[in-house]
Amino acid sequence: MTRHTRILMSVIYWAFIVYLFVPLVLMVMMGFKDSKFIGFPIRGWTLEWYTGIFQDAEILGVFGYSMAIAIASTVLSLSIGTWVACFLGPHKFRGKLIVFALTCLPAVVPGIISAISLRIFARGLEIEPGMLAIILGHTVHNVPFVALVVMARLSTLPPSHIEAARDLGADAIVAFFRVTLPYLVPALVGAGVFCMLLSFDDFVRSFFLGSYEPTLPVLIFAMLRSGMSPEINAISAVVLVLTAILGLWAERSMRRLNKGS
User: Fold this and answer.
1) What pLDDT sits at residue 142?
2) What's the pTM value of the predicted model, to 2 decimals?
């Protein structure tokens, strides 16, 4: 790589970093603005919008509601996705490619199409719009990501480990829980965090499958209809910080688990 190419790549990289982070910085800054309107100049600074979030029972309730949905859908996604990965990974059978394609289909279908179809399907099962419908919808969308991550990790598992467990008298179930599952823990941690963030941030499926109790993205959308305000920026900034903390924890946990495996 020539010197000019390296300089060009560096310029492109830093331009992307600026493009990515400057809007986030501005969003956080607007949450401290001592005014009800978004825009420059910022003549005064206040913590009123941030303190108001933690004193607003509605926002805290919606946040807890969204977290409950994210955790429930993540648990279901990890369970189903791991089973699918273990079924598709080591086994060879006719039609495996078709099954794999169908598994990945929910991840590539446009969100609006997926939300409408899930709404119709939930109605067909007589599942009313609400928490259960949202959890099932998020689970359907998240399973492909879990399956792909777990399959990638599973492909690096030495077959000798399973064979050694079977030679020592372990059946397939015991070998899975004593050998395979511990080996998959780093992938499960990463996939679990990713699923939680996807579920927590999902707007389209939550909007179509929800009832009168909104998730946090739906609440923010409703607030936006009456105009931008620093309160929305403050909510977004808090979610951003929590997301960054969760992501950093997941990264450190995966590195530690990979070193120990």
Assistant:
1) 93
2) 0.85
